[in-house]
Specification:
Helix 5 (118-129) links the parallel strand 3 and strand 4. The protein has 748 residues and is α/β, with parallel strands linked by helices. The structure holds adenosine-5'-diphosphate and zinc ion.
Length: 748
Amino acid sequence: MAPMQDGASQAYAADQQDELDARILGVVRQYWGFDGLRPIQRVAIRAGLGTRDSLVIMPTGGGKSLCYQVPPLIDDSAEGKPRTDVVVSPLIALMEDQVSGLRANGVPASALHSGLDEKQQAKVEADLKAGRLRLLYVSPERLGSSHLVRLLSGVRIGAIVVDEAHCISQWGHDFRPEYRALSSLRRRYPEASLHAFTATATPRVRDDIVEQLKLQNPEVLVGNFDRPNLTYRVLPKDSARKQVLEIIERHRGEAVIVYCLSRKATERTADAMKAAGVKAAAYHAGLSASQRSKIQSRFMAEKIDVIVATVAFGMGVDRGDVRAVVHMDLPKSLEHYQQEAGRAGRDGLSAECVLLYSPADIAKWKSLMERSAAEAGLSREQLEPQFELLRHMQRYAGSMSCRHKALVEYFGQEYALPEDATGDGCGACDVCLGEFEAIADSAQVIKKALSCVARIERHAGRAYGANHIIGVLRGRRTAEIESRGHDSLSTFGLLKEFSAKALGSIMDQLEDRGLIERAPGEYPVITLTEAGVEALRAPEEQLPTLYRSRVAKRSESGDGDWTGVDRELFESLRELRRDLASERNVPAYVVFGDRTLRELARLKPSSPHELLGVHGVGRKKLDEYGGIIIDHIWAFTNGSTGSGASRSQERRDTAFEMFDSGAGLEEVAQEIGRTRESTRQLLEAWIESRRPEQIAAWVEPKVYAAIEQAAEAEGPGRVSRICRAVAGRASVDEVSATLAHLRVRAEA
Ligand code: ADP
Ligand code: ZN
């Protein structure tokens, strides 16, 4: 039996732990308004309070930031001086977002980076010296500067946090040379504990992080990589733009990110969406920094619903209510995929991630990689790590097993079904949801398709591309097929019951299963692999099953999430949030997340006390918004026009009546008590619904003509370009009204 003493000291230690947990939870409630912590957060926060180094690996959306933001707020001021923690972050936008989020919650935080002017910088430094900051964000190159080193020598640093730590590794997917400078941190700040955070790290990258940062005996914490609220789908890519539009249609009015490989594709796709009436914008590295940051902030402020972007978009984009992430092209690694797709549903509510897949993308990537390796003077062998990452990506896209399981296992974890799973696998991927249908007589279909490939090659003495083969299988008499005599082959018309699209998907599946291969390069001709030759003779039961994908049913972003939510109230709260955010010039999510709005629209709190019980409402937000929210909910539920009509509807009606009689923006804004920005949007809405002949009351004909001319020159969707073209001659109000009117005229 254990001696008494031990038992007693264990009990004492357990008590202390409980006490610490209670303090942590108290801080999280007070500042963030969260009810509890995710299991790994609790452990990671404890690590941040201790003296040991740590490496924390959590998927995007897992709640990393809280882990390092809480420790400096837990006051153990035995040493008199308050604690300041330092966070290294790779991007200014990322730092600024975090700082504004923290301040909105009442946490004193600042950032030092090259974007500050002298005055701003002096202010941050003074705050730092005076011990007023709990968190200081810095860029990696700053941290090494002797000026900052001197400054920090007077500060009690509890912990130094390296965010996005995979950037230090060449084995990772986002290597940043400036991160290399961080290897001196351990030596330079022996008193502080060092904590590395990353969302994606395969074992090799993990080891590299520990080694490069010289972490000492770090505690390694790995969060759950599964994101059960995300539904993953892979659709065979055939008419990408149309497929994307269908997905967007399922998410009208919601936030969506679409990723494409090329800049041109982002612009074309965004234009197609705008033409369909979607508030969309293209985003890529070819835009100027200021254009990009403008698009980002408009997206954050909910003025744009859909961003069509290259991978240049994402880091630091922290809109929690993204309801779908669509990939029009295959990413080059599962790390990329996981990170980009992970931007969906960060608020924990349901969201979907759709990958449009064609094996042709693999060939495209390979030749891109080869070309850039040749330019950089790398050997084929040095390319191997990249090819390996790509092979994993291909395997994921081509597989017919659970996507959640595949992703989690790739990141080195075992997959456990969610607790509420009802039998059909994860319940949140196309495979488990049964959105694929097995093709009857798959084996026969495979043999017919393969023998067609073989016959054509034997007959013509050379291989042909997929379209030609599909044409022969469907029995099409094209000029090419007839002139080559391929209409006389025994395989001609052998699979004519399939559409060209279905056969395209079948060819893709044969490729994914290693039965055929596509030559890389400009003319991707198709040949049988060795396995393909064997398959021709193999017994049928040894051949794989082929599938056709059914159209995904409309996924009503998770019905469960909406139980008891008054949708109209939710919408009017969203509008209120948009106004509050634009008045304060912060992104909408900084005011409140969607989850908070849904709870408000479900619980309809009527007192500050009830309000504090709502997810996402802490002390600071209660002080700042409590009165407004309670008034709003009260007015909504006691609306004079009966329970259904919301105040925003009334406002809209009033505004429309005033516009009917030609009232100016300023006047209407005053009357309805709304910002200029939202009144401008109302005018746009009025133009679109009333379709007036002319809008001379708001835009003088001369100004109108100038804007129209700019719109013709720049393209009607290029709002910021148009604004620049008419700068000094027309206001933003005039541009937006004119563009709305031009849209109406174009439709007429
Ligand atoms: P990461 O940086 O890991 O991608 P974030 O720190 O941005 O993730 O957090 C993702 C989302 O989860 C945010 O919307 C945040 O408000 C929410 N969140 C984090 N921790 C909690 C918690 N303990 N309870 C409820 N929501 C949380
Ligand atoms: Zn599944």
